[in-house]
Amino acid sequence: MIDLSWEVVLVIDSEGIYRAANAAVRFSESRNPFQIARDRGIKVCYSGDFGNLLGMYTCKWKHRIIILNNRLDDYMMKMVCAHELGHDVFHRDLAKDDGIQEFVLFNMINHTEYEANAYAAHVLLDDDRVYSLAHEGYDVVQMARTMGSNVNLMLIKMQEMNKLGYDFRIPFDADSTFFKKIHQ
């Protein structure tokens, strides 16, 4: 018999992430992450000195701050902001020292990054619309295009919806290096 007691199993609380994201959307009556940040008292700032850094979340002296690379296009900025909101909800303690810096958003290996991605997917993408498009026969790429989303974010949304009881056929995993390929 093999002793596996030393292994750490990372369990994602998909239902908790879903509830938290939808509570934020209901509270703000919006899927706009900038509105959600404003309503939650999180300051959003912009910087042109980030190089390849997409954004970061920090919490200092009870001030919660999202800093975004101002060279991102509007949709990418929205997606990074929603991701950073996920860090505010689930990882505030980790952000107290140097903050949580984002070079890659679709990192499926890192537990905290996956939680922030799932939160962003639930904030930005409506369940009913995703389900409706899939039911109408749209593929993942068509669904993402129709909803103005990135295909990787759509894949995460569908994976998370499957964990909540849906039964989507997901043809491939999200590309964990997608954001590394962005040219600013």
Notable traits:
45% helix, disordered N terminus, four-stranded mixed beta sheet, 4 strands, 11% strand, 7 helices, alpha+beta, single chain, 184 residues
Explain what this protein looks like in three dimensions.
The chain has about 180 residues and is α+β, with helices and mostly antiparallel strands. It has one domain. The chain is about 45% helix and about 10% strand. It has 7 helices and 4 strands. It has helices at about 15-30, 35-40, 75-90, 110-125, 125-135, 140-145, 150-165, and strands at about 45, 55-60, 65-70, 100. A hairpin with a 2-residue loop joins strand 2 (about 55-60) and strand 3. Helix 1 packs across helix 4 (about 110-125).
Topology:
Elements: H1 14-28, H2 33-39, E1 43-47, E2 55-60, E3 63-69, H3 74-90, E4 100-102, H4 111-124, H5 127-135, H6 140-146, H7 151-163
Beta-strand share of residues: 5-15%
Helix content: 40-55%
Poorly predicted sequence stretches spanning 5 or more consecutive residues: 1-9, 99-109
Shape: globular
- Rg result: 17 Å
User: Helical region count?
Assistant: 7
Strand order, largest beta sheet: 1-3-2-4
Task: Please summarize what this structure is.
The protein has helices spanning 14-28, 33-39, 74-90, 111-124, 127-135, 140-146, 151-163; strands at 43-47, 55-60, 63-69, 100-102. The protein is an alpha+beta fold and 184 residues long. Helix 1 (14-28) packs across helix 4, helix 4 crosses helix 7 (151-163) and helix 6 (140-146) crosses helix 7 (151-163).
